[in-house]
Amino acid sequence: MLSFIPTPIGNKEDITLRALRLLRELDVFFCEDTRTVKNLFRMYDIPYQDKKFYALTSHSDDRSLAFYVSCIEKTSCGVISEA
Fold it and tell me: What CATH class has 2-80?
């Protein structure tokens, strides 16, 4: 299953309860910048050391995209939107 997780623009305190729940529950995330997303996890005291983060940008090549699709088929993943 693939879940889309919106993050707030500007005020980080505007995050939804659903987004926080998904950040805690899921183990695999696709995002633009893994460093920014890890900062979000730190801000909400969500452990991220056992989670996997993959950069998904317009520069992702076909091999990476194929790997991402195989991850989605095997486990629940989240796509984190960033501003």
Answer: alpha beta
